[in-house]
Amino acid sequence: MENKTMVFFMVLTLGFQTCFGSEQHYTSGLGDPGMKGDGLRVAFEAWNFCNEVGEEAPEMGSPRAADCFDFSSSILKHRVTEADNKLGVGNPFLGLSPQALNNTDLYAAEKELYLASLCEVKDTSNPWQFWMVMLKNGNYDTMSGLCPENGKKAAPFKPGRFPCFGDGCMNQPLLYHQPTGFVGKDKMRGGFNGTYDLGSEIGKGLDGISFFEVVWEKNVGGKWVFKHKLKTTKKYPWLMLYLRADATKGFSGGYHYDTRGMMKLLPESPNFKVRVTLDVKKGGGPQSQFYLIDIGSCWKNNGSPCDGDVLTDVTRYSEMIINPETAAWCNPKNLINCPPFHIDPNDRKIYRNDTANFPYSAYHYYCAPGNAQHLEKPVSLCDPYSNPQAQELVQLLPHPIWAKYGYPTKQGQGWVGDPKTWELDVGGLSSRLYFYQDPGTTPAKRIWTSIDMGTEIYVSIKDEVAEWTLSDFDVLLTSPPTDQRSDHIHNVTPSL
């Protein structure tokens, strides 16, 4: 009996090696691993500077929309109507709370949940909803008092620090939807596009106006390719466009509302990788902080998960910028822009004043949360207005120190003319990055609720255009998720 058991075990082992070779076995955290499903789930969200809506654009409804359909026998069965996409404040829908009916910010958050309910796919582990196209306007009317300061209501202040052409600069865009359909026998195509310039017509040309577009297309049986375009102008010099895989419940990175998304299993450092194919066609100019990968989550300074209290929650971001025109603001003469220390792949801690060993050119910029109480000086505080709560930001640049994690090691890799499929050990790298935490507290579980790619054209000097395509997007868990705290994966009630 013992010999038969041993033979059976050997057969199982050989079978496992045949299936997976020398590679590690992965579990995808996404509902649509690698963007391969013939049916599609994609949604759209637009935000103003502080991740709110503020005011809807005329006749556009709330800036949330979705294109979700099932595919069977070459027939697309759409789940979301154009009437659903045009819903705006004052128009009820199933599940809308009374307090949200005439509140533009709450209405948009609840409209996302409604669209998600129409798109939701039941799954053996967790249900999932859609990829999220995120568009954000960087204009901030400082005299409006609309954006809180580190979660606290802020008084108006004189302009100068942020772009704004005057009253109305924080407006939402005109949004147009091209529902997915067949172009030819086997190819499907759909998209969202529009402009922030109210009253303009994009069909008459783009000279002098802002523009955004995301087009998705796929041959039946193939994979989806998402084509992005973003154009800035003098009136709208700071625009952001990302394709996001967000958590299917709870807070996605940067929000204090319950959100929906594509990540049915949440990745936790160090146990995950990200695979994606990126082809940058146009870079967007010198101010384009193009993120090969941007990960976001939320935990408090004492390590506890966020609970919707915007005074104590902190959004945490890590971003790899691949635009070769982006310089390292962190350098020996500007330690204020560097994290207090760097941890190398061998777990060696290198302090920023160690000028012989600290990899300054591996960091574009570090800033600390404005509500932290025990910061090591010198310190640069993150912008207190652009998120509903305080935030912390670690921005990276290509550098040989990241080679072990599969990231770019020199400027120009992955940029225009260098399309590539990346397999990034995002979990391994993010487990070693510095994030602030109060002394003597239990280290936070680094559970990431958003993973996205795209660009932030940061106050362009002239009209700029960025174009890129994404495909093969997947989040690969290298070990089963741990017992993640419920606040990260279940509905929570935000404090508003």
Secondary-structure blueprint:
Layout: H1 2-20, E1 27-28, E2 40-47, E3 64-72, E4 75-78, H2 82-85, H3 104-119, E5 131-137, E6 174-182, E7 187-195, E8 211-219, E9 225-231, E10 239-246, E11 272-283, E12 288-298, E13 314-321, E14 341-343, E15 349-351, E16 363-367, E17 390-396, E18 420-424, H4 426-430, E19 450-457, E20 465-477, H5 486-489
Parallel strand pairs: 2-5, 13-17
Antiparallel strand pairs: 1-20, 2-3, 3-4, 5-10, 6-7, 7-8, 8-9, 9-20, 10-19, 11-18, 11-20, 12-13, 12-19, 14-15, 16-17
Organism: Papaver nudicaule (Iceland poppy)
Keywords: Signal
Signal peptide: 1-21
Task: Describe this structure as you would to a colleague.
The protein is mostly beta strands and 496 residues long. It contains five helices and 20 strands. Strand 6 (174-182) and strand 7 (187-195) form a beta hairpin. It is globular and about 60 Å long. Mean pLDDT is 92; it is low at 1-22 and 485-496.
Tell me briefly what this model is:
By secondary structure, the protein is mainly beta. The protein is 10% helix and 30% strand. The chain contains five helices and 20 strands.
Indicate the mean pLDDT.
92
Q: Which spans have pLDDT < 50 for at least 5 consecutive residues?
A: 1-22, 485-496
The level of helicity is under 10%
Q: What's the number of extended β-strand segments?
A: 20
Radius of gyration: 23 Å
Distance between the termini: 66 Å
Strand-residue proportion:
25-35%
| SSE string | HEEEEHHEEEEEEEEEEEEEEHEEH
Q: In terms of structural class, how would the helical and strand content be classed?
A: mainly beta
Which of globular, elongated, flat, extended, rod-shaped describes the shape? globular
- Characterize the main sheet: 10 strands, mixed
Number of helices: 5
Strand order of the largest sheet: 4-3-2-5-10-19-12-13-17-16
Keywords: Signal
Protein name: DUF7705 domain-containing protein
Signal peptide: 1-21
Domain DUF7705: 28-477
